[in-house]
Structures are given as C-alpha cells and as structure tokens.
Amino acid sequence: MTKTVLRIDSSVRKEGSISRDLTSRILERLSPEQVITRDLTEELPLIDGEWVGANFTPADQRTDAQKDVLSLSDTMIAELNEADTIVIGLPIYNFSVPARLKAWVDQVARAGVTFRYTEAGPQGLLEGKRAILAVASGGTPVGSEIDFATTYMKQVLGFIGITDVTIVAADQLAVDADGSVKNAYNAVEQIAA
Q1: What is d(CA 21, CA 44) in angstroms, rounded to the nearest whole number?
Q2: Ranges of each domain in the chain
Q3: Model pTM score
C-alpha cells in the first residue's frame, strides 16, 4: 500500500495539461494516505556559485546565509525522503524535460545527501522508493532516439537510488491524441497500488 506520494508537476499549463491529468489519475489509482505536492511552475531558483559554495561547505561549518541558500533544496530533499512513491508530471518540451524540472534535479542531486561517491562509483541514497513518470508529448515518441526526457529522468532517479521507475505515456499527441490518451489511461489502470 502506498502511504506517502510526492506529486511533482512541471507543465507550465495549469488547465488542459495532459501530464497534470495523468498525475491526478495516478494519485487516484494509488489512493495514498498522504500527498506532498510540489508545483515547479512556482518560483524555483537555478543553482549558482553561492549555492555551490554553500553545498560544498561542511554542514556544521555553514553560515546562516549558506543555510538559507540551501533551505529550499533541503525542503525538497526532505519531501523525497518522506515519500515512498514519487509521481512526476513530465511534459516533453523540445525533446527534453522542462527547464524547471531540470532546476529541481539540480536542487535535489546533492553529494553526501541523496548520493555518495564510493570506490565502486556513485551510489544513490534514496533506495526503496518507486517513481512513476506521467509523460505527455506532442510528437516525440517515448523511448525513441529523440526522447531525451524519459531517459534523462530514469538516469537521474537511478543516480539518487530510485531504480523502480514506471512510465505512463501519452506521447505523440499531435499524431493521435485520442488513442494516445486512451493508452495512457489504460496504463494508469495497470499500476499496482
């Protein structure tokens, strides 16, 4: 049973968004006890030199200003830690992820916090969770050589330890919207709660 879901929406469209519709349907299917919502269309700063400096300063040596710079990152990582399932609305923009979703990735992929380096290579620290990507695209076929969105998100999630990733896709909406949406709805019904 799914206890806590972190819902992440990244579509700039609030109304008529297929990825937002899919995330809602997936949540309904999962019937979690708790939902944490993160809408990435709200202000999300890009990392900069000040952020990097704060991040690479040992936690017990950070100034109050550095702690403040990392506070949003800390909050978003806490959301990931609390959730056992992460549902990400993923519209494909120009063959890849929306800029704000990339900004979220940059905020949560932190060495020593969500992954660490070992002699055997990087190791994700958020193991035992699952992710469901609710994908929508106008013309990009999911899994094709021009799909840099789902492959990127699977790589990033695996990097931080989340390797159980399901894709629900309403792709090529410009080609066959009705058929694509119907297939996505059917895929939602196959998700184990």
Answers
A1: 22
A2: 4-189
A3: 0.95
